[in-house]
Amino acid sequence: MGEGDFALNPFEALALPHVRGRVLDLGCGLGNLSLAAARGGCNVLALDASATAIERVRRAAAGLDLRAERVELTGYRIAGSFDTIIAIGLLMFMTREAARALLGEIRMHVAEGGCAIVNVLVEGTTYLTMFGSAPYYLFAPRELEEAFAGWDLLQSRPDRFDAPDASEKRFATIVARRPAAR
What we know:
seven-stranded mixed sheet, 5 helices
């Protein structure tokens, strides 16, 4: 790891072995996964709404094949196709309609043989203070699997973590490979 790097979180660590080629990281945050992917030889487009996060990614990406841009992701439309599209910890911070629309965009823009890597909070999560008064959407536990029906599910797993005030966070994470056309 380079100076100022942070360890990958469990979801990023699960994702990294499946990241290849041309990568779109939606809601990249501080860019830990984007940076690891670029260091592994990927061409990365990292997007986030936070100007501070994007500036950090840009500084850390010097000399790498990584472009970081500040973008409002609610209502975002993906241009082109990608070998890997990542949305870890993003979609639950949108309304149901916006989350499902961006999930549809992800499905449409993963290249044949490429992977979608998506992680969301699911129903049963009781730690909700992270949302404040902002809209949010807790996915049904198998909603991601259903959204990628017909794709090869390389990973599909629930996770549960304790949170403050005897509450908990429940997640669903999938790594789905788009089948090649027949």
